[in-house]
Amino acid sequence: MAEQGAGPGLRGARCVPWALGELAEALGAGYDGPPETVIERAAALDEAGAGALAYLSDRRLKDRLQGCRAAAVVLRPADRGYWAGPALLSDNPELTFARAAARLHPAPEAPPGVHEAAVVAPDARLGEGVHIAAQAVVEAGAALGDGAFIGPGAVIGAGAEIGPGTRVEARAVVAGGCRVGARCRLEPGVVVGSEGFGFARDGARWERIPQLAGVRLGDEVEIGANSAVDRGTFHDTVIEDGAKIDNMVQIGHNCRIGAHTAIAGQVGIAGSTAIGPGCTLGGQAGFADHLQIAGGCHFTGQAMVTRSIDAPGVYSSGMPVQPGRRWRRSVARIEQLEALYQRVQALERAVAGEIGRGGEDEDSATEDGE
Amino acid sequence: MAEQGAGPGLRGARCVPWALGELAEALGAGYDGPPETVIERAAALDEAGAGALAYLSDRRLKDRLQGCRAAAVVLRPADRGYWAGPALLSDNPELTFARAAARLHPAPEAPPGVHEAAVVAPDARLGEGVHIAAQAVVEAGAALGDGAFIGPGAVIGAGAEIGPGTRVEARAVVAGGCRVGARCRLEPGVVVGSEGFGFARDGARWERIPQLAGVRLGDEVEIGANSAVDRGTFHDTVIEDGAKIDNMVQIGHNCRIGAHTAIAGQVGIAGSTAIGPGCTLGGQAGFADHLQIAGGCHFTGQAMVTRSIDAPGVYSSGMPVQPGRRWRRSVARIEQLEALYQRVQALERAVAGEIGRGGEDEDSATEDGE
Amino acid sequence: MAEQGAGPGLRGARCVPWALGELAEALGAGYDGPPETVIERAAALDEAGAGALAYLSDRRLKDRLQGCRAAAVVLRPADRGYWAGPALLSDNPELTFARAAARLHPAPEAPPGVHEAAVVAPDARLGEGVHIAAQAVVEAGAALGDGAFIGPGAVIGAGAEIGPGTRVEARAVVAGGCRVGARCRLEPGVVVGSEGFGFARDGARWERIPQLAGVRLGDEVEIGANSAVDRGTFHDTVIEDGAKIDNMVQIGHNCRIGAHTAIAGQVGIAGSTAIGPGCTLGGQAGFADHLQIAGGCHFTGQAMVTRSIDAPGVYSSGMPVQPGRRWRRSVARIEQLEALYQRVQALERAVAGEIGRGGEDEDSATEDGE
Questions:
Q1: Chain A, 331-370: which have a CB under 8 Å from a chain C CB?
Q2: Which residue from A244, A2, A7, A174 is spatially nearest to C192, judged by alpha carbons?
Q3: How much is the ipTM here?
Q4: What's the pLDDT tens digit per position in B200-225?
Q5: Which pTM was predicted?
Q6: Arch. (CATH architecture) of C18-104
Q7: What is the pLDDT of residue C249?
Q8: CATH level 2 (architecture), domain A113-315
């Protein structure tokens, strides 16, 4: 494939230049340097060219400022000495940078209105400035808050509510009766309100247990591409304010996700599990059903969580990869562990007998009956 | 986020009251109490208020009946003594409750007809009472059985067949030539009939092997949001009657899933693997390709299945999470296992030499060549 | 469910017969047998009936040629002796077979044109022979190369580019500003260009870091159903030529996937990780962020990759399933490992004291501070 220079995406190609002083004022940040310094775009620190704004979040990266040609750098006041050029000063450089980038590269605006190829039920309630794109469907009794964005092909089910300023991107689905708060963002392909995995046994058969409740998303919840949140059985499945959910995450019926909890890609949370606020869940982690996870818990990737956790902390499981040959040996060694324990016990007895100390018998592995 | 009371979803808000006696008759269940007792809705046992029907599936939960204000409770005849109020009597309270809930809260009805913003090929065959929602597409030669529901934005490919009473929810896709049985349910975003992952090597390149067959779903198969079932190479990929599949499950080409097998979220099954009937697969479990799994096998979450299994039973793998510090120590200890085996062997030799017994040499881990 | 004979899918039902000699010439392969031998369809070796073409890729399967009724078999010249009937001769039988199958069962043709129920922006640029299906959306400034196929309900965002001969299947989304090369294939439900998981901390809150760049796919890239590729922050997320990606794969922002790398279902790759060319990633494998993985690495299913890898090879992790009882014992034994090391160390000291050798002290597990 031909290398054709950095792709600008859609948004990087849209630049609104700012003067350093005005940008600082708009962001409520300090600055140091000529206020008229023109900033044209946001960039990574190690590739920030002329006109760019970069940021230094971690002092350990300060060598990257050497030879940096950025128009200005966001950094902590205490780090001001590492950079001779114009600066935005902030105790949280990453946050200030994120906000500057949003001003330098505003998202494309969606003009208010309903596309002629959208289908909107006559009794749907549309707030001011709502945008409904082509091929979207808004069913009977749905309500869209002011400034809501419904992307191409998205579906808002009967009686669903979308809060003000919320974006439902292309082909996302908010099923009937579900409620989404303000300033949320549902990426393409998201499904909110699918029927959960609830079945009663009928001999060898399974019969569906009706899922009577919905899903309720707080404000500023974001959900990544092709993720799904099942509706509740009797109570809404709830995702609290500010929770951020990555792509292909599965959230089962009756779950509750705490405020500002961040969930990385492909995490799975089985039904009726509650995750506290302020947690971080690493990619592909899996949670069994009916667990209670305390706030402030952090799980590394692929963590396997089968019991409730009542204390904040870092939790991990799994073995990192090894070269195939070593891994096979490890698997074999683990499978032989039972025999190893017995050998050690035999040694202990032999040595105890020999040198006159009593052997210990602490070898029984705990084992649940089935 | 403001707590605004329990969300009723779409369906929980629709209540059709029943008299106890009539409900019992409709369900073929027994009852005990005034037949005119009015039941207005279904609820969980620990929150069932006036007018609600709850159920007691497990005698160990009988304390929850204390102070319960439910209008009636479904329970086993043998448990009748734990509850003084009106009761529905059933040997399978959960099943009877599920059926009662479906009557108390009927699903919204979709009126027969084709929405004017749907696109239906002229030669598609539509049964009686078919509902085709806005923005749906039904391609040439497709056939929909009586009472089939095609949701908003759903796509039924050329020549595909949808059985009577089957629901294809919003934005689900049934690709060309695939066949779905009766009374199935495909949740939003499901893809049935994607091209499987079949490629031939051409030096460093991969070249697609055409996937010539389709997918065949039996009756009463349910598939959760954003799951995918690949079409077969020469034979249909098959999902047998009554199998229930949760969200984001991947089923590779040429697989066969046995009748009434239940597959939890994010399970992955690689190509040409056959899972027997009556199995349960825990969330995020993974199955290698070309395996044969016997009927009646149960796999816990994140199970890693790399070999065929010929006997029913419970199968597990993986280590549950530990606090990060302990986990790191465990990882290190496992990586040192080889050395530990050697130390034990050295001890055995030393002790044997000392006390005149022969050492054993059983330490070689089985190791496949590469 | 009734067994109704093998399902032909859509494509297997379309057969274009070829004469052996002409097929060999079209494929640039040798042949042996009557050139007029009629071949009607492609089939698996162990079920190839009259008129079928099968292939022998592995000499160990040669017994399957016994009694095979195929019209012709593709095999290596050196294997010619195992099959008495007509043959196509190739040093890469699987590849030659794949190409023959594509000719025997051509994919349904999509006639050029824009469906009247598609929405195409007036300034979109459409190449020759483009097909845009019903309910598709092509936004402002998008460009479609010659022969591009945009399936039903698919969405091509503003300014996106789709290369010649590329297929964007039903309901796939290519978001604004993303670029897809030539002869690619995006299966139903794919999302290219979702906003990545990039957030700055603001106390307990998270605030989105704008994702300014796009996604760039090389030529002949294939992506499976419901997979997602996030757009880059400052640079495009890149998938190089010929990479093949299976269903429900998550590729984070700023990743780079090397040419001809094959990624099986449900793999997750966190942000800014680069995978070299010619790798194979087994199903459900997970990669942490900011890793560098050398070309030519092969990972088995569910591999947990937390560090960069600089040498080609096979890498694995995880324990295969065991019967539940044995697994519980293994878990317990692993949890007791620390104590076992101490017991072995005590034994070593005791034996050393007894037999006059010095004990070793090599028991401290490496442990990172937190």
A1: 331, 334-335, 337-338, 340-341, 344, 347-348, 351, 354-355, 357, 360, 362, 365-368, 370
A2: A7
A3: 0.93
A4: 999 999 999 999 999 999 999 999 99
A5: 0.94
A6: 3-Layer(aba) Sandwich (3.40)
A7: 98
A8: 3 Solenoid (2.160)
